[in-house]
Amino acid sequence: HGIPAEKVLEKTGTSVTLEIVIPPGSEYFDGHFPEFKLLPGVAQLELVVRLASRYLGTGIYVPSAKRVKFSAAIRPGAALRLELSYTVEKHALAFKIASSNGAIVYSAGTLTISGEL
């Protein structure tokens, strides 16, 4: 219960676009503004890293983040479009979380990511 459901919209060897819905009962929303529940930035980044690992085979260690911007609040049950693109040589994972139609960008940025600690 509370686990985000994802659907692959498009996939190549180094990129994937997913549709995600995080159910209102998800533990991601627990304790984060009980009267006005929002998806915390740390939860957004955890989803990015976990889904990149699952679909693109990246590591899970994130030594740095560049130009990460959270620009709109994600509410429970929102239909999201997650775009991930991995540049292997640079260990760079670019991401964008937007509304399902792309009209609202909730967050975007680039993470350095690898399997080594």
The share of residues in extended strands comes to 35-45%
Question: How many angstroms does the end-to-end distance come to?
Answer: 31 Å
Integer average pLDDT: 91
Work out the radius of gyration.
14 Å
Q: Largest beta sheet, briefly?
A: 6 strands, antiparallel
Helix/strand class? mainly beta
Helix content: 10-25%
H/E topology pattern: EEHEEEE
Strand order of the largest sheet: 1-2-4-5-6-3
How many strands in all? 6
Low-pLDDT residue intervals, each spanning 5 or more residues: none
Shape: globular
Number of helices: 1
How would the blueprint of this fold be written?
Blueprint: E1 5-11, E2 15-21, H1 41-56, E3 61-70, E4 79-87, E5 92-99, E6 105-114
What does this structure look like?
- The chain is mainly β.
- Strands 1-2-4-5-6-3 form a 6-stranded antiparallel beta sheet, covered by helices on one side.
- It is globular, with a radius of gyration of 14 Å.
- It is 14% helix and 44% strand.
- The chain has 1 helix and 6 strands.
List keywords for this structure.
mainly beta, globular, 6-stranded antiparallel β-sheet, 117 residues
Question: How would you briefly describe this protein structure?
Answer:
The protein has 117 residues and is mainly β. The protein contains one helix and six strands, in the order E-E-H-E-E-E-E.
